[in-house]
Amino acid sequence: MKHDAAQIAALVIFALTYLAIAWGRFPGLRLDRTGAALAGATCMIASGVLTLRQAYAAIDFDTVTLLLGVMIVVATLRLSGLFSMISTAVARHARRPLLLLVWIVLVSGILSAFLVNDTICLALTPLVLEIVVALRRNPLPYLLAVAMASNAGSVATITGNPQNMIVGSLAHIPYAVFAGTLAPVAAASLLLSIAVIAIAFPAEFRTAEVLQAAPPVGAPRASRALIVKAAVITAGMVGAFFWGFPPAAVAISAGVLMLLTRRLKPERIYAELDWPLLLMFVGLFIVVAGLESVLTRQAHALAGALHLEHAPVLVGFTAVLSNIVSNVPAVLVLRPFLGALPHPQHAWLLVAMSSTLAGNFTLVGSVANLIVARRAQALGTSIGFWAYFRVGAPLTILTLLIGTAWLAVID
């Protein structure tokens, strides 16, 4: 009887929490996604589904530490002016619209592969918008390129986005193995991003017009010495990831090294960090642990009933769920079911790939998209839902098909 009450409580709390996350707020309250996750976690403890000790144990501190460390690294890179230097170099050398598109996709995609796509979108959006306005181009396709390439490129590694960090940590997949498996999918997705955007905007890209060199953008805010230091630490961090050192330890060590400077106040770095995202992670780990505690026995049966052992079904289910509740919550809710599958590591890779690429489907499909839209809106440029959807939907379908086929070949 007690177990039945706990099961009902866990299901109700989970459903209400994910409803608020999918809606973006709780009806009638000023409760955002982070607040909903923390409220759900608290209710799991208060209702007796989990003890406080069990709730603490449910938090994957490796994931939280990894994300925090990478955030500090990216914040320092941004404040050092390195991203501004890269953008200025692109603006000077991309002399045709199609070449400018190619460079934006490559820069956004490659940086996102290693440094969390959300933070890269935050840094690149105003720089790209400044370039295209100075060149008197239509800003829409280039802003779409930032968002879509950041999602596509982030598929490649564990540090590409928050959901990949969760997958890498929960499935214990080595960084090099993860990258070796999914980097080809990311590369193909970036090429498709260029092609689909170029086809969708023929007036912008089917032209022989030569662009004038754009003026320098976003002047660096710190010294060249800080830029060099930040670049060296970042390169060392990525190398250590591939070498096999624990990603969380490497990332937080790199973050601390970034803070050891006389040239940049730590408060400026702290202000750049996405603290609500970290708090949402903590809450969601606890909420999902509460659900998992009462569904352990049913997980295998539910996975079988949904036929999640079939790759196309798992990919499709993950993609749809990611567009309903967002990709990080979707990955966490799938955790109880993937362990019941015959090849859990392969299933986790499918989930990482599909939850990430599904973010390109609609404007609200990923946090990276929303960051680009909000930053652009603040600077006077609007990205409409349908303007995004007509490019994002076909791109998502094509990349998911390629990703599924690739993982089937190497299985």
Give the number of helices. 20
The helicity comes to over 70%
What is the CA-based Rg, rounded? 21 Å
Q: What amount of the residues lies in strands?
A: under 5%
Straight-line distance between termini: 44 Å
Sketch the topology as an H/E string, one letter per element. Answer: HHHHHHHHHHHHHHHHHHHH
Please give the largest β-sheet. Answer: none
Shape: globular
* Structure summary, number of beta strands: 0
Structural summary, described in words:
This protein has 411 residues and is mainly alpha-helical. It has one domain (3-410). Helix content is 77%, strand content 0%. It has 20 helices and no strands. The chain has helices spanning 2-23, 33-46, 52-58, 61-80, 82-93, 97-115, 117-134, 139-154, 162-171, 175-200, 202-205, 224-243, 247-259, 266-270, 275-306, 311-325, 327-338, 344-357, 367-378, 385-410. Helix 5 crosses helix 7 and helix 8 runs antiparallel to helix 19 (367-378). The protein is globular, with a radius of gyration of 21 Å. It starts with a helix and ends with a helix.
